[in-house]
C-alpha cells in the first residue's frame, strides 16, 4: 500500500511536473506570440504614421501649387484686364481726374467709372460703354449717382471733338442743378436744359432726330453712324446725349418714346443717361449701382464688386467746358479735302457737264455742284478771309480728281496781289503742276490787259468750237463730242478771282472786257466754256449789276459768310452762315434753291500737294506745264518761243523782237525791218534800264537771224549810265561790232549818212543802235546826218534803233515843232504819257497809256491799228 501510494505520489508528481513543463512551455509560447504581436503592431503603427505624414505633405504641396497657379492666373487676368481697359478707354476716357484733360479720339471709347475690386493689387478700371453703343442707367444713392453722371459726361465730352457731342439736361427735381457745373457749355449750344414739363417734347424730338438720321443720313446705306464713320471717316451728326435725372411716373406716350430711344437711339448717336427712372434691363443698357465703399456694381461686370471714382473736381470740369465752348464758338473743325475725292481718279466724262461735290450739307450729305448748259457760269462772293480762295481750291480739287485733262482744262487768273494760283504751276521748290491747268496768271492786278488777253483767247476758242459745231451740224458740246469722238474738246473752266479789277474804269480795256464777257457768257454755255468769277468786294458784284443780261448768265451763285448782293435781294442766308460754310444756289439766288455746304480745308499746302502730285504723276506725256504769267516777274528773252524760232534765213526781212506781249501765248512783240522808208525804231522815255533792255532784245534777236558776218552792228553810246549795258551787248553780238562815244560819233554818222545816200547796192544790212540819241554832239551837221540816215537809210538796209529820252526830243531830232514823223515807223514808249505820243499815232488821238514800271507801249504803224502793251525782257 505504501508502495502504491508512493507510486501514486510519484505518478502524481510526474504528472504534475509534466503538466507544469507543458504549462511553462505554453506560457513561453504565449509570451513569444505576444511579443511578436506587439512588434507587428508597432510596425504597422509606424507605417500608418509615415503614410499619414506623406499624405499630408502631398496635400499641402498640391494646395500650394493650386494657390500659386491661382495667383498667377489672377495676376495675368488682372494685367490683361487692365491693359484692355487702357486700350478701351484711352486718354480722357480713362485718365484719373488729377491728370485729366480733353483728348478728342478718332472713335468712341468706353468710359471709366471706378475700379473692379479683384483680390489682386493690379488696379483694373471699371468701364461702361456709352457713345456708339448704348445707354447708362444709374441707380442707388442719388448723391453718389450724381458724381457718376458728371464723370461720365465729362469723359464723353473730353473724348469727342468740340461740338461733336451735345447734351440735353432734364432735371425736374433740381431744376438743372445736377448739371450746373457744365453750365459754361450752354451759351455755345453744347448743353441745353429742358424745363420740368418738357420731357415729352424732349423724347419726341430725340425720336424725330433718330428717324431723320435713319432716313436721310444713313439712308439705308449704313446701319449706324458708327458704321458710316468707319467707312467714310466722316461724322456728319453729333452724338446727342440726353441726361434724364429723375422723373417720377412717366406717362404712357413718354414710356413708349423712351423705350423707342433705348432700342434704336444708339445707332443714330442718341444716348440716354438715366438716373431715378425705372428702366427694364435690355441689350445695350448698362446699369450702375451707386453705393458707398465696395458694394457698388456695374451690370457688365456681374457680381464683381466695384469701387466708384469720385466725381471730377470742379476746376477740371470748368476748364474743360471753357475749352470746349471756345472751340465750338470758333467754328467746327475743318472737313478733310479727301472727302471730296472719288474712289477712282479721272473716270468721269464731261460731255454733258462737270459735276463735283463742294463739301457736306449740315446733314452730312455731299452737296454737288454742276456746270453745264444750265447753270453754265458761277459767281462767287465773300469778304476777304471768309474762304473764297479755299473754296475755289476745293472745287478745283474735286473736279480735277474726277475729270482727266482730256475732259477738263483750267485757265486761272488772279487779279489780287498775291499768288494764290501759283501752286498750280511748277515752282522752284515743287516742280509739279496740276495737269489740267493750261494757264495761270498771278499778280495781274495792274495788267488788266492780261485779263483781256484771256478773254480774247477764250473768245477765239469759242469761235473754233462754234465753227466745228456748224461743220458737224450740232448745237452743243455733247453732240459735237459724239460726232467727233477723236477731237479734243475738254470743257474749259476759266476762273477769274477779283474780276472787278478788269471791269474797273471806263476805258477801252473795260469796254472790250465786258463785251467779251457777255459774248462768252451767252454762247460759252453750249460750247463747254464756263466762267467762274469771284470777288471779295460788293463793288465787284455791282460792276456786273449794270449788265442784267450778263448777270443772268451766272445762274450758279456761291455766297460765303456775309457776302452781300450775290443772292436774291430777299435771300439773306449768307449773313448767318457759320465759318467755312457757303450757300450754293443754282437758281440765280432764289431763296428756295439755297443749299448750305461746309467746305473742306483745301488751302493746306501739304494736303493739296498730295493730291496734285498724284494727278501730276498720272498726266499724259503730252501734257506740259501751264503757261505762267506772273505780273511781278520779268520774262527772259531766252524763254521766248518766238526768239527760239529765229534762225539765219536768206532773203527775209529781219524781225526785231522788243518784249513779251501780254497774251495767253506769250508771243513776242515784233517789228519787221523791211527795206522801206520809216523802218527804224525809236525807244522813248527816261528809264535807262528798260530802254537798254529793249535795245538789247532788238539787237540780240536781229543777230540771231544772220550768220556771224551777215549783218553789221554799230553802237553809239551817248549816256554814261547806259554804257555798261551797251558794252555788255557789244560783247555778246557777233563779229565784234564797233562802239562809238560822243568823241567819235561824227565818224559813224558821216559814214552812215554817206552810205545812206549812196547809189551802189548795199551788201549787208547795218543796224545802228544809238543810246540817248537826243544827246548827239556836233550841232546841226550831226543832226542833219542823223536825219539823212533815218530818212534814207532803211531803203539801203541801214536801220536806226535809237533811244530818245523823251517824245519831244525825238520830235526835235526829226526837225522841229511839227516835223514829219514818218521816218519812225515803230516805237516803244516807256515813261511817256499817251498825249505826248499823238504825233506818232494815227489820227488825231492819243493812245491810252499811263506809264508803269517795266511795262512799255509798242506801236508799229505798218501793222497796228492800236498800240499794244509789252513787257521788256529782263536778264
Ligand atoms: N473750309 C475751310 N476750312 C478750314 N480753313 C479754312 C477754310 N476756308 C478757309 N480757311 C482758312 O481761312 C483763311 C482764309 O481763307 P482764304 O484765303 O480762302 O480766304 P479768302 O476769302 O480767299 O481771303 P482773301 O480774299 O483775303 O485771300 C485761310 O487761312 C484758310 O486756310
How would you briefly describe this protein structure?
With 875 residues, the chain is of the alpha/beta class.
Keywords:
19% strand; binds adenosine-5'-triphosphate; Rossmann fold; 875 residues; ten-stranded mixed β-sheet; nine-stranded mixed β-sheet; alpha/beta
Describe the overall structure.
The chain has 875 residues and is an alpha/beta fold. It folds into 4 domains: 15-88; 97-329, P-loop containing nucleotide triphosphate hydrolases (Rossmann fold, 3-Layer(aba) Sandwich), CATH 3.40.50.300; 344-630, P-loop containing nucleotide triphosphate hydrolases (Rossmann fold), CATH 3.40.50.300; 637-871, Rossmann fold. The chain is built from 20 helices and 31 strands. The protein is elongated, with a radius of gyration of 49 Å. It binds adenosine-5'-triphosphate. Adenosine-5'-triphosphate binds next to helix 7.
What is the SS-derived class? Answer: alpha/beta
What's the CATH architecture of the largest domain? 3-Layer(aba) Sandwich
Please tell me the overall pLDDT.
91
Strand arrangement across the biggest beta sheet: 23-22-31-30-29-24-28-27-25-26
Q: What small-molecule ligands were found? A: adenosine-5'-triphosphate
In whole angstroms, how far apart are the ends? Answer: 183 Å
How many beta-strand runs? 31
The description of the largest β-sheet is: 10 strands, mixed
CATH class descriptor of the largest domain: Alpha Beta
Give the helix proportion (percent range): 25-40%
Number of helices: 20
Query: What is the CATH homology-level superfamily of the largest domain?
Result: P-loop containing nucleotide triphosphate hydrolases
Rg, nearest Å:
49 Å
Shape: elongated
Protein name: FtsK/SpoIIIE domain-containing protein
Domain FtsK: 364-569
Binding site for ATP: 382-389
Keywords: ATP-binding, Nucleotide-binding
Amino acid at each position: 500500500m505504501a508502495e502504491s501510494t508512493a507510486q501514486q505520489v510519484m505518478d502524481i508528481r510526474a504528472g504534475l511536473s509534466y503538466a507544469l513543463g507543458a504549462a511553462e512551455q505554453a506560457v513561453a509560447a504565449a509570451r513569444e506570440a505576444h511579443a511578436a504581436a506587439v512588434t507587428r503592431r508597432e510596425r504597422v503603427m509606424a507605417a500608418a504614421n509615415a503614410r499619414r505624414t506623406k499624405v499630408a505633405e502631398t496635400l499641402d504641396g498640391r494646395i500650394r501649387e493650386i494657390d500659386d497657379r491661382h495667383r498667377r492666373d489672377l495676376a495675368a487676368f488682372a494685367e490683361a484686364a487692365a491693359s484692355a481697359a487702357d486700350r478701351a478707354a484711352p486718354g480722357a476716357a480713362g485718365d484719373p481726374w488729377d491728370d485729366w484733360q480733353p483728348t478728342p479720339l478718332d472713335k468712341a471709347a468706353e468710359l471709366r467709372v471706378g475700379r473692379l475690386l479683384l483680390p489682386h493689387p493690379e488696379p483694373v478700371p471699371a468701364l461702361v460703354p456709352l457713345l456708339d453703343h448704348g445707354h447708362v442707367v444709374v441707380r442707388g444713392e442719388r448723391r453718389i449717382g450724381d458724381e457718376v453722371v458728371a464723370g461720365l459726361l465729362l469723359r464723353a465730352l473730353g473724348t469727342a471733338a468740340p461740338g461733336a457731342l451735345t447734351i440735353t439736361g432734364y432735371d425736374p427735381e433740381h431744376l438743372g442743378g445736377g448739371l450746373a457745373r457744365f453750365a459754361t457749355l450752354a451759351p455755345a449750344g453744347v448743353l441745353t436744359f429742358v424745363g420740368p414739363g418738357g420731357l415729352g417734347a424732349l423724347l419726341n424730338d430725340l425720336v424725330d432726330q433718330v428717324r431723320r438720321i435713319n432716313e436721310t443720313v444713313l439712308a439705308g446705306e449704313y446701319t449706324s453712324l458708327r458704321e458710316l464713320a468707319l467707312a467714310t471717316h466722316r461724322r456728319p451728326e453729333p452724338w446727342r446725349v440726353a441726361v434724364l435725372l429723375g422723373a417720377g411716373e412717366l406717362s404712357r406716350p413718354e414710356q413708349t418714346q423712351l423705350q423707342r430711344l433705348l432700342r434704336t437711339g444708339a445707332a443714330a448717336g442718341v444716348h440716354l443717361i438715366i438716373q431715378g427712372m425705372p428702366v427694364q434691363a435690355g441689350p445695350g443698357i448698362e446699369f450702375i449701382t451707386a453705393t458707398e465703399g465696395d458694394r457698388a456694381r456695374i451690370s457688365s461686370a456681374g457680381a464683381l464688386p466695384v469701387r466708384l471714382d469720385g466725381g471730377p473736381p470742379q476746376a477740371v470740369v470748368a476748364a474743360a467746358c471753357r475749352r470746349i465752348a471756345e472751340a465750338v464758338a470758333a467754328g467746327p473743325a475743318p472737313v478733310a479735302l479727301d472727302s471730296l475725292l472719288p474712289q477712282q481718279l479721272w473716270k468721269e466724262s464731261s460731255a454733258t457737264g462737270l459735276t463735283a461735290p463742294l463739301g457736306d450739307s449740315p446733314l452730312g450729305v455731299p452737296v454737288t455742284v454742276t456746270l453745264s448748259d444750265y447753270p453754265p457760269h458761277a459767281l462767287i462772293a465773300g469778304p476777304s478771309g471768309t474762304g473764297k480762295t479755299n473754296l475755289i481750291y476745293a472745287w478745283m480739287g474735286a473736279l480735277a480728281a474726277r475729270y482727266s485733262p482730256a475732259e477738263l482744262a483750267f485757265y486761272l487768273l488772279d487779279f489780287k496781289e498775291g499768288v494764290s494760283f501759283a501752286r498750280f504751276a511748277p515752282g522752284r521748290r515743287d516742280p509739279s503742276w496740276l495737269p489740267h491747268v493750261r494757264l495761270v496768271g498771278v499778280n495781274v492786278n495792274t495788267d488788266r490787259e492780261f485779263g483781256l488777253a484771256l478773254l480774247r483767247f477764250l473768245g477765239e476758242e469759242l469761235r473754233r468750237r462754234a465753227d466745228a459745231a456748224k461743220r458737224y451740224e450740232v448745237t452743243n458740246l455733247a453732240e459735237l463730242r459724239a460726232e467727233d469722238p477723236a477731237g479734243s474738246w475738254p470743257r474749259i473752266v476759266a476762273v477769274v478771282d477779283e474780276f472787278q479789277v478788269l471791269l474797273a474804269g471806263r476805258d477801252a480795256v473795260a469796254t472790250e472786257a465786258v463785251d467779251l464777257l457777255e459774248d462768252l457768257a451767252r454762247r460759252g454755255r453750249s460750247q463747254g466754256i464756263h466762267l467762274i468769277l469771284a470777288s471779295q468786294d460788293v463793288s465787284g458784284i455791282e460792276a456786273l449789276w449794270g449788265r442784267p443780261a450778263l448777270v443772268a448768265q451766272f445762274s450758279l451763285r456761291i455766297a460765303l459768310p456775309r457776302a452781300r448782293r450775290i443772292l436774291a435781294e430777299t435771300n439773306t442766308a449768307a449773313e448767318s452762315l457759320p465759318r467755312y460754310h457757303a450757300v450754293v444756289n443754282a437758281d440765280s439766288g432764289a431763296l428756295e434753291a439755297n443749299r448750305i455746304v461746309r467746305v473742306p480745308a483745301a488751302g493746306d499746302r501739304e494736303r493739296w500737294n498730295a493730291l496734285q502730285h498724284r494727278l501730276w504723276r498720272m498726266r499724259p506725256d503730252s501734257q506740259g506745264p501751264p503757261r505762267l504769267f506772273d505780273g511781278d516777274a520779268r520774262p527772259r528773252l531766252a524763254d521766248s518761243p518766238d526768239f527760239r524760232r529765229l534762225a539765219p534765213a536768206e532773203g527775209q526781212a529781219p524781225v526785231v523782237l522788243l518784249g513779251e506781249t501780254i497774251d495767253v501765248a506769250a508771243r513776242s512783240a515784233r517789228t519787221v525791218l523791211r527795206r522801206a522808208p520809216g523802218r527804224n525804231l525809236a525807244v522813248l522815255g527816261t528809264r535807262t534800264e528798260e530802254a537798254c533792255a529793249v535795245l538789247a532784245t532788238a539787237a540780240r534777236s536781229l543777230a540771231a537771224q544772220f550768220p556771224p558776218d551777215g549783218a553789221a552792228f554799230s553802237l553809239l553810246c551817248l549816256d554814261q549810265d547806259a554804257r555798261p549795258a551797251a558794252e555788255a551787248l557789244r560783247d555778246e553780238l557777233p563779229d565784234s561790232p564797233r562802239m562809238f562815244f560822243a568823241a567819235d560819233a561824227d565818224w559813224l554818222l558821216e559814214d552812215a549818212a554817206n552810205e545812206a545816200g549812196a547809189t551802189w547796192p548795199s551788201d549787208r544790212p547795218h543796224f545802228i543802235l544809238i543810246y540817248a540819241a537826243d544827246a548827239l554832239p556836233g550841232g546841226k551837221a550831226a543832226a542833219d546826218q542823223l536825219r539823212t540816215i533815218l530818212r534814207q537809210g532803211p531803203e539801203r538796209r541801214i536801220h536806226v534803233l535809237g533811244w530818245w529820252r523823251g517824245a519831244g526830243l525825238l520830235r526835235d531830232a526829226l526837225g522841229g515843232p511839227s516835223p514829219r514823223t514818218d521816218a519812225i515807223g515803230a516805237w516803244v514808249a516807256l515813261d511817256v504819257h499817251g498825249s505826248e505820243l499823238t504825233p506818232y499815232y494815227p489820227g488825231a488821238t492819243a493812245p491810252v497809256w499811263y506809264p508803269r514800271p517795266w511795262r512799255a507801249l509798242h506801236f508799229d504803224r505798218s501793222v497796228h491799228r492800236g498800240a499794244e502793251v509789252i513787257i521788256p525782257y529782263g536778264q
